[in-house]
Specification:
By secondary structure, the protein is an alpha/beta fold. The chain has a single domain, classed as 3-Layer(aba) Sandwich (Rossmann fold), CATH 3.40.50. Helices cover 35% and strands 17% of the residues. It is built from eight helices and six strands. Strands 1, 2, 3, 4, 5 and 6 form a six-stranded parallel β-sheet that branches. The protein is globular, with a radius of gyration of 16 Å. It starts with a strand and ends with a helix. 32% of the residues are buried. Bound molecules: flavin mononucleotide. The site of flavin mononucleotide has 15 residues, from loops.
């Protein structure tokens, strides 16, 4: 299986989690890792290049830190540019048979993403635009890989969570 990890993080130089996830992913056989903010610092996404990358991989992982209950802006730009009518939907079925997964780090802990928690909504609810997008485009949406509570996590806790990434990428 060929797996593509697309990383959307505007400040990888200051990252604790996503940089570590990238590094561990890059060491896994059959995994290609791309730093999308480095590719497109001006937000002009090369749709053809991205479509070709998707077409030549079986599983696509969208990796990002949670920003305002969503993704950093470049991922939205990427979706709007790449998932075109006639290719991904509306007559196109390029994503049929592909597996998509989101890999997301959150500053707040898992228990805050519950009905009773401070954010009230669950991660499943907040990530539903991704699930719905990939359902609509006939892809398979895999269980998200989440690393939560990053704001207060110790280095040991982050290391332990990051160590689970290779298994999630290849399961
Ligand atoms: C602009 C911005 C918005 C953020 N919004 C959220 C949020 O909605 N929920 C949350 O749990 N953490 C939020 N955070 C915290 C980040 O998710 C957290 O710092 C990141 O996942 C850590 O990953 P990193 O070490 O790779 O940067 C936000 C951070 C920034 C800079």
């Amino acid at each position: 299986m060929r797996t593509l990890v697309l990383v959307f993080h505007p400040h990888l130089d200051r990252s604790r989690v996503n940089r570590a996830l990238m590094d561990v992913a890059a060491g896994v056989d059959g995994v290609t890792v791309v730093d999308e903010y480095a590719q497109y610092p001006d937000f002009v996404v090369d749709a053809e290049r991205e479509q070709e990358l998707i077409e030549t991989h079986d599983r696509i992982v969208l990796q990002f830190p949670f920003y305002w209950y969503s993704s950093p802006a470049l991922l939205k730009q990427w979706e709007d540019a790449v998932l075109k009518a006639g290719w991904a939907y509306a007559g196109g079925r390029a994503l049929e048979g592909k597996e998509f997964m989101v890999a997301v780090s959150t500053g707040s802990p898992a228990e805050s993403y519950t009905r009773e928690g401070s954010h009230v909504r669950t991660m499943e609810e907040l990530l539903s635009p991704f699930e719905t997008t990939f359902r609509h485009t006939h892809a398979t949406y895999l269980k998200p890989f989440l690393i939560q509570g990053v704001a207060t996590a110790t280095d040991e806790q982050i290391d332990a969570a990051v160590a689970k990434y290779p298994a999630a990428l290849t399961a």
